[in-house]
Amino acid sequence: MSQSRDVKNRDVQNRDAKSTDRESAPPGIDTSVAHSARMYDWWLGGGHNFAADRAMGEAFIEAIPTIRSMAQANREFLERVVRYLAREAGIRQFLDIGTGIPTSPNVHEIAKETDPGCRVVYVDNDPIVLAHSRALIAGGEPGTIEYIHADLRRPDRLLADPALAATLDLTRPVGLMMVAVLMLLSDADDPWGKTRTLMDALPAGSYLAITHPGQDFNPQAMAGVVAAANRGHMTLVPRARAKVERFFGAWEITEPGVVPVMAWRPEDGPPADPNAAYYWAGVARKP
Ligand SMILES: C[S@@+](CC[C@H](N)C(=O)[O-])C[C@H]1O[C@@H](n2cnc3c(N)ncnc32)[C@H](O)[C@@H]1O
């Protein structure tokens, strides 16, 4: 069952999307420059965004008018894959990198439907996510949900963070979630190497779930969003399917493979147009 097609973000229902501008920004947040977390929050109907984020979001919409529903499709994948990992793969611990501004249902809410004992560590490097992290982890049993403010480009620091070992048992399988985050690292940042460092820290039986904007769906439209991102000094690198597959290394990619996000184990029957959302999605298991 997909709860998400109608409204994704329970928080959002009570929010005035423009309210943030009337509030003071949390400390350490530069509201004059667009940030991916806040732009994505705006696409999803959230209220933790500012004029610069919405301007950048509009520029993306000019290049890809359906980009909001693509963000929703990405979010629906997150729900499906957490259900799949918890119900079918028996995963009880999740490490969600680039988690974003809290959007309900989030990983712990979905996983705990299968087993209330599931444990989740959320990671992001955006100060606004840190500012809202209390809301993200609220309601969980103490010690079962944690937020770590860390950068994917420094996986060593993340892995050494005491909160990680205090929450997850890294001798037992983990679901590593890299959902719509790797495109925010340039090739020079070596996102494959950074992901590999995290994968190597996990035991056999762990899973990696990825979504990634695809270069090969509509190259012209994608060039439009990349140009808009670059104008706003935001790194955005859509990648071709083969480059997305490379992230999984020697791990066994589960059925149906690396496919358009809407075609990854749809729960409401096959989508009318699986290529309507320009994201690749895939899941793999560590042998
Ligand atoms: C598009 S949002 C995706 C949110 C969520 N994973 C989802 O798919 O709904 C990307 C998130 O990745 C975070 N992010 C970007 N670069 C990062 C980095 N180097 N380390 C950690 N988080 C990062 C951003 O702050 C943002 O919250």
CATH homologous superfamily caption: Vaccinia Virus protein VP39
Separation of termini?
30 Å
Number of helices in the DSSP assignment: 13
Q: Beta-sheet strand percentage?
A: 5-15%
Ligands and ions found: S-adenosylmethionine
Instruction: Return Rg in Å.
Output: 18 Å
CATH architecture: 3-Layer(aba) Sandwich
In the predicted model, the low-confidence regions spanning at least 5 consecutive residues are: 1-19
Class inferred from helices and paired strands: alpha/beta
**Broad shape:** globular
Order of SSEs:
HHHHHEHEHHEHHEHEHHEEE
**What is the third-level CATH name, the topology?**
Rossmann fold
Structural domain count: 1
CATH class: Alpha Beta
The major β-sheet equals: 8 strands, mixed
The level of helicity is 25-40%
The number of strands is 8
Instruction: Give the mean pLDDT.
Output: 90
